[in-house]
DNA sequence: ATGAAAGCGCTAACAA
DNA sequence: TTGTTAGCGCTTTCAT
């Protein structure tokens, strides 16, 4: 805790603080000899620049905030890791903001932009509307969104192509011979749900299968929600042979319900989930699942955002649409006898 | 992006910047009328104080850093959540630092203390030595450790009582009638491993069971490590009836090996793990496990650290020793017929 | 109870 | 290539 300042280094090296600053920031306008001498003194004195002074003067915090609904959920953790690694490699820091599923918290974290706690903010939460986010972007705050598309030219977004995702699931199931396929969706208002329903319907059409509203039921992306939704579905209709669950949590709920109802997977019912979480490999039969490139969604967006900060202008590409990939496991494979 | 400054508010309210600052910081030395008028203007102008200026002047960042080995591991995520919630409720922010299992990264993050990026730092990683950490503390930097005890009077620590943890496991197993119990430890140098071995030996003694070195094998806290270690163990000795695994990951490795070797759990072998991760409830039979109070370890330490920052002195309690709790499931319960 | 003024540590115009 | 100087926005003595 010695608290050496730039002026101390400057004096010892017989230069001005400005020159020391130039050396520290890798300016080209410094004589090689001078630079060496200054560096030498910096090392000798173990000088480390004070970040607060630097921030105030340069009007940059070199920090990004990431707002997630819940740090515990592996979905978010993976995205965070992608952001972290990219940001760190570009000399940025990452402030994790856990909104704990509370809208009020999300709004609170937005103020980090206004009060200059961070240079930019990445929202990975669903609850703020496009309009709310757009109005911040309009005011000049750097904002980005992961997980959905926001229709504002100043807001970069990275997300999965959910229409294609759903279609890929249905292709796989129809290939396996299924004609009666149910869709266990998430919250009906979630853009994920809307897009996936769209893809679901498209793929059915392409396969010449009529769409039945009775084969769609909404849950809340949780295991319990999946369990309940599946039971509701089943009470309406008994003859579907496959279920496309909005995520693996809901697929696990289906497993639970099937265990109770003595429905055997995959013989009587094929199941496909989304996210390919670790647990899908530990239940029997293992759950086929669409794996989203979460790490990539985080890292491309962080890169884009930092690039934007540095150029102080919006680069060409704003939307990063990534594709999920089906990982086929036993839950959706018919036995050979079939 | 209007960038209103404290001077703007001051002018409009016909007071000095000092008074506005007093109002903002809840100083008692402001006339009630004046305060009201200033507050009114602050609201009207939607003034939000610039954090950079505030930090520089007050020499506080109101930010804690948490250094973890890997944000993806649920063990760390739970601790982080505890820190986050406590810190936020005390108006602190949390900077997550993912060391990615690299010692060099950990050291890098330590510099956040020196360059005033954060006010204090919580290490949840194992690789920095007590000496290294102590020397920082000695220099006046605020540092805390989660997961192990560091013997320096200025470093608060929260951790699980690993001796008691191991003893509780062995009590449970001997109660079930086991006399030949193996211990699948983690890295042999890890303090967790050392303490648990100590508790393991103590409990055996108390139960009048001789300790056999051949029943101890080391792994690396991973599923694969557990798998390998179990096979090594088994090749040395075949007649143990129970395994205490250093964590649930290693217990999962035991499950994998047992499946291959046709050993039935719990009939031929009882298994107990540590951490009680979610996965323990999805394998069959479910894994009995010691649940550590991770969230609590994070929150008590954050509270302590912030308290220490505010008082600028070390309060009474430095060590927070918490107890794990056994969650008994089928993997360690003998069938009634036994 | 309030204001004036100094300055936290740094960088960036502008001069030289 | 280097130095001088003026702040970045805020808080905090010290007066009053």
**What characterizes the major β-sheet of chain A?**
6 strands, parallel
Would you identify the CATH architecture of the largest domain in chain A? Answer: 3-Layer(aba) Sandwich
Strand percentage of chain A: 15-25%
CATH topology name of the largest domain in chain A: Rossmann fold
**Strand elements of chain A, count:** 12
Q: Tell me the greatest interface.
A: A-B, 41 and 42 residues
Radius of gyration of chain A: 26 Å
Structural class of chain A: alpha/beta
H/E topology pattern of chain A: HHHHEHEHEHEEHEHEHEHEEHEE
Quaternary state reads homodimer
Question: What is the CA–CA distance across the termini of chain A?
Answer: 74 Å
What are the low-pLDDT stretches of chain A, counting only 5+ consecutive residues below 50?
Answer: none
CATH class of the largest domain in chain A, please? Alpha Beta
Would you identify the CATH H-level superfamily of the largest domain in chain A?
Response regulator
User: Mean pLDDT of chain A, as a whole number?
Assistant: 93
Strand order of the largest sheet of chain A: 2-1-3-4-5-11
Figure out the total of helices of chain A.
12
Shape, per Cα inertia axes of chain A? elongated
User: How much helical structure, as a percent, in the residues of chain A?
Assistant: 40-55%
Number of domains of chain A: 3
SSE layout and pairing:
The structure is a homodimer of 338-residue chains.
Chain A: H1 6-13, H2 17-24, H3 32-45, H4 51-58, E1 63-68, H5 74-89, E2 93-98, H6 103-114, E3 120-123, H7 130-138, E4 143-146, E5 157-160, H8 162-175, E6 181-185, H9 191-206, E7 216-218, H10 223-236, E8 242-245, H11 248-261, E9 270-274, E10 288-291, H12 294-311, E11 319-322, E12 325-327
Parallel strand pairs in A: 1-2, 1-3, 3-4, 4-5, 5-11, 6-7, 6-8, 8-9, 9-10
Antiparallel strand pairs in A: 10-12
Helix pairs in contact in A: 1-2, 1-3, 5-12, 8-9, 10-11
The structure holds a DNA duplex (16 and 16 nucleotides).
Domain HTH cro/C1-type (chains A, B): 2-48
InterPro entries (chains A, B): Cro/C1-type_HTH, HTH_LacI, LacI/GalR-like_sensor, Lambda_DNA-bd_dom_sf, Peripla_BP_I
Organism (chains A, B): Paenibacillus lutimineralis
């Amino acid at each position: 805790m010695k608290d050496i300042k730039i002026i101390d280094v400057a004096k010892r090296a017989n230069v001005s603080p400005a020159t020391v600053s130039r050396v520290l920031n890798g300016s080209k306008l410094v004589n090689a000899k001078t630079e060496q001498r200054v560096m030498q003194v910096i090392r000798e004195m173990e000088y480390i620049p004070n970040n607060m002074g630097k921030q105030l003067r340069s009007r940059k915090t070199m920090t990004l905030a990431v707002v997630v609904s819940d740090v515990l959920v592996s979905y978010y953790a993976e995205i965070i890791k992608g952001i972290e690694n990219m940001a760190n490699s570009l000399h940025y820091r990452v402030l994790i903001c856990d909104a704990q599923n509370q809208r009020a918290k999300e709004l609170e974290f937005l103020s980090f932009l206004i009060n200059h706690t961070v240079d930019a903010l990445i929202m990975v939460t669903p609850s703020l509307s496009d309009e709310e986010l757009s109005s911040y972007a309009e005011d000049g705050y750097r904002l980005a969104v992961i997980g959905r598309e926001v229709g504002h030219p100043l807001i970069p977004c990275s997300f999965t192509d959910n229409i294609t995702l759903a279609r890929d699931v249905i292709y796989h199931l129809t290939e396996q011979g299924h004609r009666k396929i149910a869709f266990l969706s998430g919250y009906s208002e979630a853009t994920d749900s809307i897009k996936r329903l769209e893809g679901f319907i498209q793929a059915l059409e392409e396969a010449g299968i009529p769409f039945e509203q009775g084969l769609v039921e909404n849950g809340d992306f949780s295991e319990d929600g999946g369990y309940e939704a599946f039971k509701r579905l089943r009470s309406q209709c008994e003859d579907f042979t496959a279920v496309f669950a909005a995520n693996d949590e809901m697929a696990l709920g289906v497993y639970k319900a099937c265990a109770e109802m003595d429905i055997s997977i995959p013989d009587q019912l094929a199941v496909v989930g989304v996210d390919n979480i670790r647990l899908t490999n530990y239940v029997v039969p293992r759950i086929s699942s669409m794996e989203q490139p979460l790490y990539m969604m985080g890292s491309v967006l962080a890169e884009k955002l930092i690039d934007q900060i540095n150029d102080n202008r919006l680069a060409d590409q704003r939307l990063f649409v990534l594709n999920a990939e089906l990982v086929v496991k036993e839950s959706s494979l018919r036995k050979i006898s079939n």
